[in-house]
Amino acid sequence: MDNNLLIINAHIVTPVGSGARKGKEMNELLNIPCGTVEVTDGIITYAGPNRKGKLPEGYKVLNAENQILLPGFVDSHTHLVFGGYRPEEFIWRMRGDSYMSIMERGGGIVNTMKATREASFHELKEKAEKYIHAMSRMGVTTVEGKSGYGLDKETELKQLKVMAAINRNPNRKVEIASTFLGAHALPPEYKDREERYIDFLIDEMLPYIRENNLAENCDVFCEKGVFTVEQSRRLLSAAKEMGYGIKIHADEIVSFGGAELAAELHALSADHLLHVSDEGIRRMAENNVVATLLPLTAFTLREPYARGREMIDAGCAVALATDLNPGSCFSGSIPLTIALACIYMKLSIEETITALTLNGAAALHRADRIGSIEVGKQGDFVILNSDNYHILPYYVGMNCVIMTIKGGMLYPVA
Ligand code: NIG
Ligand code: FE
User: Fold this and answer.
1) Residue 278 CB burial class (10 angstroms; 0-12, 13-18, ≥19)
2) Residue in 144, 186, 328 to alter for ligand 1 test, most ligand atoms within 8 A of Cβ
C-alpha cells in the first residue's frame, strides 16, 4: 500500500496529547533518539524506540539516519485564497503610512476584495496551490485557510469551494481547514449598514455554508474601525450555535477587548494579540483559548511583537502561525516564524515546536487527529537536515526541512 510506511533510526521529537498544551507543559517534549514510526494506511500504528527483529512486510522503509523527526507543522492562520497583490501598499507603509490609514482610504482588504471578485475559480485555485506547495517544502502538513476577500455570497463561496476542491485531491500534500471570515471588512455595498451586514452573514451565509459543509470555523476582524465587540459577539454566538468553531482576529491594532470576548465565548483561538490586555491574557488562560501569535505580521507592519513569553508564563496555550495574506503579511515563512518566536517573543525552542504542531492543531479543533507523533494520529511528519532540533531557530530564516510526509506519503524537498 502507498501509505504504509516505516521510518527507522529517527530521532523522534514530539509533544504528547490530544489537546492544547498550556503554560509549562509547552516545554515538555518526548525525545526518542533511535526511534521507529510505523504508519499503516496513513495512520500511526507504532511510535517508539527501534524494534528488534525483522521489519514487517508490506511497508516502504525509510532510514532517517538519526535526523530529527517532528510532527508535521500546522499553520493555523492564513488567508491563502486571494486575487491580485498589493505591493503599492507595502511601499506606502515603508514610507510611514499605517495599515489602518490605508484601509480607511479604501485600500487594504477591500482592494483584495475587488481582485478576488474578478478572479476566476481556476485562477484562485492555481495561486493557492502555489502557496501550498511552498508551505509543504517548509514542513506544513495542515493549513488553515480563511475566506473574507469576497464579502458577498458568490465570492465568499468561491473562496471556500477552492479550498474544498484542493482538499478533494487524494494526493494533496497539505490539508486545508477552512474558516468563514465574511466579517473581514464591511463591503462598500453595506456602507453605514454594519448591522445589516451582520444580519446577512447570520441569516444567509452561515446556514448555507454549514449545510454544504464548506467551513469548519467562523472568524471576525474585531477591531476599532472594523467590527465592534458587540457585532463580533452577535455573529460568533450565532455561529457557535450552528456548530462552528470560533476564532477572532483580536487586539491586533489597538487593545479592544477581543481576547476577553474570545474567553467569554470559549473560542478555539484569539489571534494576533499584539495589544492584548493583562486581563485578556488571564482570561484566555482560564478559558482554554489558544493564543495564536503571528510574528511575521508584527515584523511586516513594524509593530511590537505579541507578549508570547508572558502569555505562556500566565498559563496560556500559545500557537504560532504565518498569517500569509496579500496585505499585512505577504509571507508564509515557517523558518522566519520560528526564528522570530525564539529571538523576539522569547519562546524556548521546545515551546516553539509545541506551538507549531499540537497547539496549532488544537486551534483548529484537530488535536485528536494531528499535531503529535502518537499511535492513532495521522502519519504527518517533518524530517530535518540535522540530528539536533536546535537548528530550527539557529539557522535563521533558512529551511532545515529535507522531507515532509503527509499521511505516510513522502515529499522530499528537492
Ligand atoms: O490577519 N487583520 C486582518 N486580516 C489580515 C490582513 C488581511 C489583509 O490585509 O488583506 C491579518 O492581518
Ligand atoms: Fe489574519
Assistant:
1) exposed
2) 328
Q: Count CB atoms within 10 A of the CB of residue 16.
A: 16
The sign of the CA dihedral 328, 330, 332, 337 is negative
At 50-97, the pLDDT tens digits run 999 999 999 999 999 999 999 999 999 999 999 999 999 999 999 999
pLDDT digits (tens, 9 = 90+) for 241-250: 999 999 999 9
Q: From atom 1 of ligand 1, which residue's Cα is the shortest distance away?
A: 323
In one-letter notation, the amino acid at residue 332 is: G
* Closest Cα to atom 9 of ligand 1: 327
pTM to 2 decimal places: 0.98
Query: In whole angstroms, how far apart are CA 367 and each of 240, 269, 281, 373?
Result: 19, 13, 22, 11
Cβ of 327 below 6 Å from ligand 1 = yes
Q: Which residue has the CA at smallest separation from atom 5 of ligand 1?
A: 328
Q: Whose CA is nearest to atom 6 of ligand 1?
A: 328
Which of 112, 223, 303, 329 maximizes ligand 1 atoms within 8 Å of its Cβ, making it the mutation to test the pocket?
Answer: 329
- Which residues have C-beta within 8 Å of that of residue 179, sequence separation ≥ 6? 144, 145, 146, 147, 215, 216, 217, 218, 219, 247
Residue 90: exposure state from Cβ atoms within 10 A (0-12, 13-18, ≥19): middle
**Ligand 2 is an ion; residues with CB less than 5 A from it:** 323
**Angle of the 121-137 helix axis to the 153-168 helix axis, nearest 10:** 50
